[in-house]
## 1
Amino acid sequence: MVPLISVIIPAWNESRLLASTLEAVSKAHASAEFSFDMQLIVVDDGSRDGTGDVACAWADVVLRFPVNSGKGAAMFAGWQAASGEIVVFLDADLGSTAEKFPLLLEPVLRGEADLTVAKLPPASIPGGFGLVRGLAGRGVRLLSGYDSGAPLSGQRAMRSEVLRRCERKYQGFGAEVGMMVDAVRLGFRIVELEVPFRHRETGRTWQGWLHRGKQLCEVGLTLWQCWRKPAC
């Protein structure tokens, strides 16, 4: 029986790169070395640049938020609309490198993992000083005992049972960290693998610092919530 894969892409003001990301996902589905049916879902998180209109040309389902509600809320809404037995989350700014997403599916389809997480190549320009990644990695290790090499990665695939069991509605940019902590504590198997995805890079710009500052706060809040109410 051919599995149904739900690919969920949260997007906020990503009209410039979203079309190439969605095109790459569609091409990867058509040319994959193994067969699967695909449901492509885009969650337009209150964009003001036509992101939702771009998505309509490619996606099976487009959800539109009237205001920006954060990545965690967009991921949750996408998951609620998903029908697949396996769910894939991808960021909207991967562009043509999104064609590599089937690599995340293989360990799950082979029964070797319940959740796979992509480890991306190093950035080509200097970014932050590792504060967010350091907090995320230490938090995951302290709360679950798992030593993650990519705790912040938004590129991941999982059996839908993982999301059903985790239950928690994660906050903003802390969604991936919270999901990892809960998945480990619930006994799910995680495999991290290198996948040559590429993001848009903000570098050490004012915009980049604002993004990382918000990310730091939301990761910290999510870790506190996971400590206060552990998954069981």
## 2
Amino acid sequence: MTEETPGFEEKPDVPSGATPDDAEPKAAPQEGAAPAGDATAQIAGLTAQLDQARKALEERTADLQRLQAEFQNYRRRVERDRITVKEIAVANLLTELLPVLDDIGRARDHGEFVGGFKSVGESLETVAAKMGLQQFGKEGEPFDPTIHEALMHSYAPDVTETTCVAILQPGYRIGERTIRPARVAVAEPQPGAQTVKAEEDSQAEDDKDNGPEEG
């Protein structure tokens, strides 16, 4: 019977010619460790997914910018339409008031614009002016068919172009929009008057140039 010596452990037998490391048991490979090729494939897949996400983000951003631009255009169009509708409504209202304003003007010309009628008439004219109504048409201004309507025609020797010689009914505009042209009487230069005048002017120049010589 062999006695074991306390404090000493038995070592496995080592074959002759072998190193002590040969006697150590080798660790088994860890389970679940991915080969290097699998890791590369995972990185490539994640990169592809990231590229797809970036592309989708760019597309959504472009869609959002397009929607914002369309909304801004819509707001501007609605505001423009609102202003246009308001201008049309105001023009229609003031057009209905033009006969009343004509009566006020005739009463003023005939000295009948007095008393309570004068107060009411002036108030109406003030309100119309605040709404943008402007009166136009003056005697002596050149005739413009875009804002004048000729109701009477004549010739005059003292005009050099077609001229408004009388305002039969004033015109009215709102901003740049004419809601009624000025109705006028016009006069054109007398036929042949320009030729005679040109000859007279030429003769006057000759007389001036050929003045008396000093002796």
## 3
Amino acid sequence: MAEMSMNKAIHAAFRRDLQRFVDALGAFSAGDQVRAEQLATAWANFDEQLVRHHEGEHDIAWPALESIGVSRDVLTQMDAEHDTMAAALAKTRDAIASLRRTASAEDAATALAAMQELQRVTVLHLDHEETEIEGVYLAKKDTAEMKAMGRQFSKVSPAQGGTFFAWALDGADPEASAAITGTVPKPVLTIINGIFGRNYRKSVAPVWRN
């Protein structure tokens, strides 16, 4: 089984959800208010996960990576791509909100176009980031800097942690699952995911089973 960093495993979850949204919006039936509400619920989680991830990269990951040799120019490029993604994210956020209100064919088409653009710019960024940085994460995973970075990322509430694990593991392949769970003691993961991941499994996961 090929090794991957947790960062790349999280990226896989973003790619997965973006395709789920594109597929769902492409199949949306005009007037289906229930489906519009479901997609808005799933979107709220995705939006929060993506914003938290990229803000965390800027605040936590980039300083750690720079301290172990990643160039400032590369990290500046990553931040510029984050800005492009943020603009596409804002347009998609507005489009999903409109679809939630109206469930109209017109708003579904607008949301699909916005989601496709968000998918395009996000996947370009994720691919670029992995090309530049994935090898560093793997080569330096046992350094003090990377371990400290991991501890910083883990400073979230149990509810946030449980939702994150339930979301990231939803449909993850074996490599991604191993990367996501490998740094968390199994008893801790069982409690966090089991108890605090329930809301995701109840409200969001079923959206993708319909």
